[in-house]
Amino acid sequence: MKRIYIAGPMRGTKDLNRAVFEELTNYYRSQGWSVESPFEIGARFGTDQELLENKPLLLKVMEFEEQTLRTCDAIALLPGWERSLGATQELLVALQLKLDIFPIPCTKAETVWLDNDED
Q: Where are the domains of the chain?
């Protein structure tokens, strides 16, 4: 089974952009992919609030996400990925690994930015 990692903006968006991540996770699973989502990875380490308030823990999660990305065959880039430092770094890793790259131009769910800060 092929594995895909979902990358996109979280911090600085309404509810960390959860609806958009979940929509794409469900879509790819329905297409037979094994999906790696930052929400599911982060849940192994703590709640959203714990991760946001504990920078060392957040950095540990981000390192684990990159290790997980390295096990994938492809990366899906959510709308607004270019405003996310994390997603940009994940794209660079995907390019180095020559993963398939799927930019997603839109979803049924909408990314709602809370401010102009980058992820």
A: 3-103
